[in-house]
Amino acid sequence: MSTPTQFQNVTAVAKANVYFDGKVVSHSILLPDGTKKTLGLIYPGAFHFGTDKAERMEIVAGECLVKPDGSTDVKTQGAGSRFDVPAKSGFDIEVRKGICEYICTFID
Question: Is residue 24 included in any domain, yes or no?
Fold first, then answer.
């Protein structure tokens, strides 16, 4: 399954989701079937995100290091890769250089 490059017939939310003093920024889109996704950028730095719902993160461009909560395993994620995050958990994510672009899908 390849990472999408565009979405058709969506509602885009103009107000940005801004985290960590602007080092992580995303915009939400709502698909016709009710699915919510965010399209975002992560600038260099190390960050921790908690999840309420399960999420699928797809890396569009750039590279990041990811460590799920409760794990010692750190994986490099590059363009075209993806990882899932269980509900009520979290993950550490680090970008060492450049910008990491991602799509986050909230899974019911």
Answer: yes
